[in-house]
Amino acid sequence: MRQYSGFRGDSLNSQALKKDADGLCSLSHVALCLFEEICNLASNCLCSCSAGSATPGGVENDAVMVYVWGSNSSHQLAEGTLEKILQPKLAQGFSDAQMIEAGQYCTFSVSADGSVKACGKGSYGRLGLGDSNNQSMPKKLALEPPRNMCKVSSSKGSDGHTLAVTGEGEVFSWGDGDYGKLGHGNSATQKYPKIIQGPLLGKVVVCVSAGYRHSAAVTNDGELYTWGEGDFGRLGHSDSHSRNVPTLVKDISGVGQAACGSSHTMAVAQDGRMVWSFGGGDNGKLGHGDTNRVYRPKVIEALHGFIIRKVCAGSQSSLALTSAGQVFAWGCGSCLGCGSSETTSLRPRFIEELSVTKIIDISCGDSHCLALSHENEVYAWGNNAMGQCGQGHTSTPVTKPKKVIGLEGVSIQRITFSATCININLT
Fold first, then answer.
1. In whole angstroms, what is the distance from residue 402 CA to residue 419 CA?
2. Beta-bridge partners for 90
3. Which band of pLDDT confidence, cut at 50, 70 and 90, is reported for residue 61?
4. Phi and psi for 30 in degrees, rounded to 5?
5. What pLDDT shows up at residue 22?
6. 70-91 pLDDT, tens per residue?
């Protein structure tokens, strides 16, 4: 059984075949283009949530094991202790999970029947359980009207809010409502999951992302909607105004994925051949070669010619994964994976340490990152103050990608985290 993550390309590689004076192509260049296209065709849709999925994320009901490590200060690891876990540990509390999402001090799991469970910090109703109490073990959310969920996205910062997509493409939200980031037309806290109506009513949403103070949703026809705090231009509507209902980003179409960071947003075309970013540009995290704010979607030119399978947005950095298994990073800090926590990169920069393998998935928290290779090896780098890099210690930061210890022989299918790191093994 395999968990897919990536965009599928339906046309030839955008890298033009270079010809010599006789109109012939070099074998090496042809091979490069063919390899890129084969990798692209072998991929599937990045947003694994789709209308009518039989099980969450297209995952069959197989045996699942979840490994956890990092901060457990609010019982978000469901391990019955508040102590940090410094290296991967098999978690019994998520034994029926088909999908895991780690938010700020909280964790959500989606079961094969589409039900959602939550544990961790309960302030602002972030768990969706109807109160603000902490929850030490996963507890099932009550959905009204009942729905089968297939995907959850939880904020990695701020006061915590969460978005969830049903198999029919509807979106629910709950948690802190400041700045209108829940999309219900107000700023009220929502302690139970509530369906988002308004402009999303009747739309089929295939991908959602919960940022620090804003949210995004992508529909099956390639529309991007954003809402929440508009400061720095993070909503992409050509201004800094906040929106309390989902609002169509009019400047782009054909979007397949969106990722919300602290004050910026990224979007990827359905075929993976174009990446846009907008919002706060401090430390170069937009990838445009400067630190300027961008109020409407702007193409990241440095990624032209690559087919992008996935992007991730952190606090002060961004990541991109190509169909050939390369990882690029930009912004500042140890998330660049270049050996220094003081480095800033204004444009996408190839992470050399990961060139020894092909990466098939990436995930980005507030200030640390994970990458999964095709050989089932998990690499981590960035802030490690809570042991979130899985190295068995809390020395910080980890400035170059290092293999997470204790996962030898485990078949990892998905990686996700915030201050907490979680891996799922499907057998």
1. 17
2. 67
3. very low
4. -60, -45
5. 47
6. 999 999 999 888 999 999 999 8
The whole-model pTM stands at 0.85
Hey, how many other C-beta atoms are within 10 angstroms of the C-beta on 185?
Answer: 14
In sequence order, what are the residues at sequence separation of 6 or more whose Cβ sits closer than 8 angstroms to the Cβ of residue 201?
Answer: none
Which is nearest to 227 in space by CA: 206, 202, 198, 254? 198
pLDDT of 62 above 60: no
Q: Name the average pLDDT for the chain.
A: 85
> 146: which residues sit within 8 A by CB, 6+ positions away?
none
- Over residues 47-57, the mean pLDDT reads 34
Q: 170-177: long-range contacts at Cβ-Cβ below 8 A with a sequence spacing of 24 or more?
A: 170/195, 170/196, 170/200, 170/205, 171/195, 171/196, 171/200, 171/205, 171/208, 171/217, 172/143, 172/147, 172/196, 173/215, 174/125, 174/126, 174/128, 175/124, 175/125, 175/126, 175/128, 176/124, 176/125, 176/126
Sheet holding 308-313, edge to edge: 308-313, 317-322, 327-332, 344-350
Contacting residues for 183 by C-beta, under 8 A, at least 6 apart: 171, 173, 196, 198, 200, 215, 227, 228, 244, 245, 246
Query: Reading across the β-sheet that carries 368-373, which strands appear in turn?
Result: 359-364, 368-373, 378-382, 398-403
For the chain, give every domain's residue range.
39-426
Nearest to 107 by CA among 83, 78, 79: 78
pLDDT the model gives residue 39:
37
Smallest CA-to-CA distance from 151 within 100, 92, 102, 107 is with 100
Those residues whose C-beta lies under 8 Å from the C-beta of residue 91, and which sit 6 or more positions away, are: 66, 67, 68, 77, 78, 79, 422
Contact by Cβ (8 Å): 154, 162:
yes
| Other beta carbons less than 10 A from residue 140's beta carbon | 12
Q: What is the CATH number of domain 39-426?
A: 2.130.10.30
Tokens of 108: 């959500």
